[in-house]
Write a structure and sequence with these properties.
14% strand, TIM Barrel, globular, 41% helix
Length: 337
């Protein structure tokens, strides 16, 4: 659709962060890196900085998502900070409303609430969180309960979110399939697709647009795509740095999650042919290379998805390489003006 082939300069860039723990470092160092990245992204003009909820995963420190959002928001000034996302089946909706009502009250106009329906962990850990595996099936009901707490209080309302009620906190639905795309479209909510680990489901972006119904929240659909990007000054350097994210997904395929590993010169000695296929399949949407390669990849992504916004996740062993990758992305945007 030629009418939607817009310049990257007009597309907001945002950041997804999992507070990754680098091999040999601590969660405290991961949080310092997250703050450093958020401040860098703010300086570069990025739109949002979202933190993803995960539990019982070695190498990911973003389990207490609302706490980390508050920490990052307190050390930035203008960038929107939010969840990408909070896994609603893990929590009572009232707790989520109170937590994000508190965040919005502390940082007015800067908080986003992205919601997912997956547990973000394994079944045993989900039970330890005190939630039923069935909670994901009841996601629409949980969502409606949560949205109710953010509405102005009604006369005689027995349970209220204080703070929370009456606050205008943007709610996004996140998904890796068409379930959340359909639900977001029907409710007139913004939608974010998890292309960083589920590239085969990008048709959900188009389905969301086709089924969208205007609401008091949105008059038109607003879809964001999340993708992994590894940008470096040379193509060869980017390819080498990308072996860190390849090792991360290899450990996921093997069921043995590791902390972020240093890059290697050659992955051939680390994986089997079947494992290589599985990793490359999961990272099929990844954009890796120098500025020209990344720019072309982002333009192709826009053409295929018609995204209104691009959220970028990047796994790097060295925080300096991570910061440089986002600098290159900002430089690409600036050249498009």
């Amino acid at each position: 659709m030629e009418s939607h082939l817009v310049s990257l300069a007009r597309i907001p860039f945002s950041v997804l962060d999992l507070a990754p723990i680098v091999q040999g470092q601590t969660a405290a160092q991961a949080f310092d890196n997250s703050v450093r990245l958020a401040q860098h992204a703010e300086h570069l003009g990025f739109e949002r900085f979202w933190v993803a909820e995960h539990h019982n995963i070695n190498g990911i420190a973003s389990s207490a998502t609302a706490v980390l959002i508050g920490h990052i928001a307190a050390q930035t000034r203008t960038i929107r900070v939010g969840s990408g996302g909070v896994m609603l089946p893990n929590h009572a909706p009232l707790i989520v409303a109170e937590q994000f009502g508190t965040l919005e009250s502390l940082f007015p106009g800067r908080i986003d609430l992205g919601l997912g329906r997956a547990p973000g962990t394994d079944g045993v850990t989900q039970q330890a969180l005190g939630r039923s595996p069935r909670s994901g099936l009841d996601f629409p009901d949980l969502l409606e309960e949560l949205r109710g707490y953010f509405r102005p209080a009604r006369s005689g309302q027995p349970v209220r979110a204080v703070p929370g009620e009456g606050l205008d906190i943007p709610i996004w639905l996140l998904g890796s399939s068409d379930f959340s795309a359909r639900l977001a479209a029907g409710l007139g909510l913004p939608f974010s697709f998890a292309g960083h680990f589920s590239p085969e489901g990008m048709a959900a972006m188009h389905l969301y647009r086709q089924l969208f119904k205007p609401s008091a929240t949105l008059a038109r659909p607003h879809a964001m795509i999340c993708v992994p990007v590894v940008a470096a000054d040379t193509h060869a350097q980017a390819q080498r740095l990308a072996t860190t994210q390849q090792q991360k997904f290899l450990s996921l395929v093997r069921g043995n999650r590791l902390q972020l590993q240093p890059p290697v010169d050659d992955m051939a000695a680390l994986w089997t042919e079947q494992e290589e296929w599985a990793v490359r399949h999961r990272l099929a949407a990844a954009i890796v290379g120098d500025a020209a390669t990344v720019e072309a990849g982002l333009q192709d992504l826009l053409r295929r998805t018609q995204a209104d916004e691009i959220m970028i996740v990047g796994d790097f062993h060295d925080i300096r390489d991570r910061l440089r990758s986002y600098e290159i992305l900002a430089e690409i945007k600036a050249r498009q003006v």
